[in-house]
Every structure is written in C-alpha cells, then in structure tokens.
Amino acid sequence: MPVPGPGYSITVRVEAPASSTAAGDLTTAVGRVGGVLTAFDVVESHPESIVVDISANALSENHAQDITQTLDSLPGVRVRKVSDRTFLIHLGGKIEVSPKVALRNRDDLSRAYTPGVARVCQAIAANPEDARRLTIKRNTVAVLTDGSAVLGLGNIGPAAALPVMEGKAALFKKFADVDAWPVCLDTQDTEEIIMIAKALAPVYAGINLEDIAAPRCFEIEKRLREQLDIPVFHDDQHGTAIVVVAALRNALRVVGKNIEDCKIVVSGVGAAGSAIIRLLLRKNPGDIVAADIDGIVHSARGNLDDNLTWIAGHTNKEQQAGTLHEALVGADVFIGVSAPNLFGAEQVATMKSDAVVFALANPDPEIDPLEAQKHAAVVATGRSDFPNQINNVLAFPGVFRGLLDAQAHHIDDSMLLAAADAIADVVDNGKLNASFIVPSVFDNAVAPAVAEAVKKAAKAAKAAQS
Ligand SMILES: NC(=O)c1ccc[n+]([C@@H]2O[C@H](COP(=O)([O-])OP(=O)(O)OC[C@H]3O[C@@H](n4cnc5c(N)ncnc54)[C@H](O)[C@@H]3O)[C@@H](O)[C@H]2O)c1
After folding, report:
1. Residues near 380 by beta carbon (within 8 Å), at least 6 away in sequence
2. What is the C-alpha to C-alpha distance for residues 237 and 242, in angstroms, rounded to an integer?
3. pLDDT tens, 6-63?
4. Residue 358 is part of which domain span?
5. Keywords, A to Z (predicted)?
6. Which of 90, 203, 401, 449 makes a 20 to 30 Å CA pair with 26?
7. What's the CA-to-centroid distance between 393 and ligand 1, angstroms?
8. How far apart are CA 379 and CA 358, in angstroms?
C-alpha cells in the first residue's frame, strides 16, 4: 500500500482569512484528502488575512492536484501558486564545478593558468602518469550513458537522462568525495559509444556506465575494459550484483543456511540478472536456475543469444525446463530483477522452508512483499518504504573511492566480492535480523569500509600482475 512521500511533495501558497480557525481549517483540509502535512509557514500577515506556505507529501501528481483543489475550495481561501518541490530542487541542475585554487591576483593567475601552467603540461607530456598527480584525473569519474534504459522509464534519450546522471554525480560526491561528471551521449550505436568513451578517457580515472540497455551494455563494457587503462564499471550490473551478494550473505546468516547447499532462482537475465548470476557463481552456490520472459534458461532452449548461452552453460545443473513457478518449487532463494507481480504467496509456499525472497523489480516487485512474508523468512525489495532495501548507493561510491585511491587501471571480480563482503560486514551480529540484512544507505560506515576493501583488493590484483 503506497504512502505519500517526498517524491510528490508540493508547497501551496494560499491566502486565507486571519481568523482563529484558519490554520486548523487549512491543515485539516490537507489531511482529509490523504495529504501528509510537512510544513506550515506564515509568509505574510495582515489585519484581515494571512498568506501561508503549506508543504505536503502526496501520492501522485493527481493527488497533489486534489490537495490543491481542496484548499482552494475552502471559504475565503485562494491558492496563489503551487510549487512542485521535486522540480524546485532541479532548477539549474544539481551539481556545479568550483575552483580549488584561489585566483585573487596576477600572481595566482600566473601559476594556475598561463604562463606557469605550461611547465605542468610539459611535465605530463614527458610522463603521462603524472596526469593522476597534477590534474583532476586523480579523482574524476565519467557517469556515461546513452539514455537507453533510464530507471523504469526506458529509452528516453540523453537529455532526459541528465537529471539521473546529475543525481548520481551528487551521490558520488556526498558519499565518497568522488568528482563525477555526467556524460550523456547523443548516440545509441555501440561502436560510436566505444569510440567516444575512448576519446574522452584521458580526463577520467574511471568510467561508470549507467542506464545503457542490455545486451548493448555487455559489449560496451567488455570492449572498454579491454581497450582502456582505467576501470570501467556498469553500475546497473555490478553495483546491483555487489549489494545482492552482500544481502544474500546476511540473509543466509539469518536462516542458518550455506550458499553451497542452496538452490537459487534468478528471474530476469538482463543487465542486473546476468551480473548477479556471474558474481554469485564465484560463491559456489548449490545451483542457480535462471528464468526470463521466455521461462527457465536451459541449453536446449531455442534462440539463446551469447549472454543466455553462457548463462545456460554455467547454471541449471539438471537443465530443468519450464516456467518460473516450476523453478521455484524446492528453491531456497528467489532473486527477482525482472517484472512486477509474477507470482504470489502460493508459489513461495512451494519453496523450501526458511525461504529468502529478494523481489527487486522497480517500482513494483515480482511479488508484493507482504504476500511474500506469509511464507518466506527474509524478504527484500528495491523500495525505500520496506525494510531491507537493495540499493546500489551502498556500493558504487565506495567502489570508485577504493579504485581511485589504489590508482587502479582495471576492475575485476575480486574487487566486487571484496565490496560485497565489506557491505555485509557492516551489519554485525548485534544488528543482524530478518528486517536488517543490509545497512542503511545513510550509514557513514559503509562507503569507507567498501573503499578500503576495494583498494586492498585492487592493490593485491596489481601486485599479482607485476
Ligand atoms: N537495486 C535494485 O533494486 C535494482 C537494481 C537493478 C535492477 N532492478 C530492477 O530489475 C529490473 C530489471 O532491470 P535490468 O536493468 O536488468 O533490465 P533488463 O531489461 O536488462 O532485463 C530485464 C529482464 O527481465 C526479464 N523479464 C521481463 N519481463 C518478464 C516477465 N514478465 N517474466 C519474467 N522475466 C521477465 C527479461 O526477459 C530480461 O531478462 C527492473 O525492474 C529494475 O528496476 C532493481
């Protein structure tokens, strides 16, 4: 049951009579139509009238309109204007560039810019590795998208993707002091994206691919990893996989099972599902059975692309065929990154006892978590209004902090697994229970712990190569 939240938050400026009941009438009216009042500020006061800013959370745009109309229909009340607070925080964008050096006089200018800067340029020309010491490259990451798979909105293009990429850059800064910059490309051609990313790479110490549709995202990441000497990380794949592996480790601690004994069903074999399966395989699970829109993935199924062929060859030990519902029978764990409302409590009842259900399709999960709870011991979703939110924010800031601090040239599974363990470890035995298998995204311990673990793994990988 959705509740009014800050995603649909409005401030309504109203003019009302200066009577003793005015405030009560206005706040009661908001509550009567289901709005949640968050602030009441008198901005003007006159002998006969007051002007008030009423802030409230709503369920949807239509609900926000209901609240406004209800206020406007009160006797003597007039709505002057309505501000959507979500749009307000986007005005002019969410990030900016600011200089780190003082530019107060000619002296400063001569060192930060010409003529002094020329000697720094020459030093880098002579020794390109110095770019990490003497430029923004040291701490800068490109958040690169083609706008083809943005949130649950689909292919909305590069300009419409920008608010998400700005938000991502803001999160990088807030949680890990990484300077990330949106790079939204006006092309969805795989070869062009690769060519442009390579041409842009000198400025960046890492590339975070974002919201690029499968299967194109697999090829782009693979080729860029082969051709660039900076880490390339598709967050929709690996950020999700890291947090899922962390959450599963803790969920299995709660129910007292070993992953080596578990049958894990993964619904959805796109960007997120494929990466989850590949990382989970490193944990040596009893078995993984993958299913997508065409049912269980097995080698004899027709029309398998390269990705599904690999998945079929590395999962499903008994090469089971059939539907998702059939896959669930006898499973210990369900992980969904696919589509809403695919099954109900009756299918969870067919899983093993102490079942674990991660229903992560956004915004509506594969099963209503309240239904899942009827038979499952641990339930997680991607939503912030339920316990156990699987959220990539737990992973990507610390992952890149660690990669940058290690001056890593590549990223591999050892670093992803180190990040997963670090997230899981933040939830110690004193905190762990069925409603708390992952830390809060606002837990300040998470990003430093992830960064330290990734840095260590990256340095170990570097040492092993040299
Ligand atoms: N942290 C999180 O909670 C998190 C992270 C990543 C993705 N997701 C969610 O997971 C879903 C998939 O994301 P993605 O980026 O991998 O998408 P994708 O388009 O790359 O893959 C979608 C997959 O789901 C399958 N699918 C679609 N409809 C289905 C159905 N009716 N039955 C079974 N399978 C079906 C497709 O065949 C495909 O394998 C989205 O809802 C996304 O929001 C959540």
Report:
1. 247, 251, 357, 358, 359, 360, 386, 387, 388, 389, 390, 437, 438
2. 9
3. 889 999 999 999 998 988 999 999 999 999 999 999 999 999 999 999 999 999 999 9
4. 237-466
5. Metal-binding, Oxidoreductase
6. 90
7. 18
8. 6
Query: Can you tell me the distance from the alpha carbon of 230 to that of 212, in angstroms, rounded to the nearest whole number?
Result: 19
Q: Which two tokens stand for residue 465?
A: 């190569």
Please check whether residues 226 and 242 belong to one and the same domain: no
Answer yes or no: is the C-beta of 272 below 6 A from any ligand 1 atom. yes
Residue 360, ligand 1, Cβ within 6 A: yes
Residue 259 falls inside a structural domain: yes
* Co-location of 225 and 248 in the same domain: no
The residue behind tokens 């590549």 is 410
Among candidate residues 33, 66, 88, the one where a domain is terminated: 88
Report residue 326 as tokens. Answer: 């059939």
Catalytic site includes residue 204: no
Is 113 in the active site?
A: yes
AA identity, residue 341: N
- Whether residue 246 is found in the same domain as residue 207: no
- For the entire predicted model, the pTM comes to 0.94
Single out the residue in 230, 250, 270 at which a domain terminates: 230
Closest alpha carbon to 54 in 85, 76, 21, 19: 85
- Number of domains observed in the structure of the chain: 3
Band of pLDDT at residue 1, cut at 50, 70 and 90 = low
**Is 392 annotated as a binding-site member?**
no
Atom of ligand 1 nearest to the CA of 274: 16
* Residue 171: closest CA among 260, 235, 92, 101: 235
Rounded to whole angstroms, how far apart are CA atoms 175 and 444? 8
Task: Kindly state whether residues 197 and 245 are assigned to the same domain.
Answer: no
Please indicate, yes or no, whether residues 339 and 221 belong to a single structural domain of this protein: no
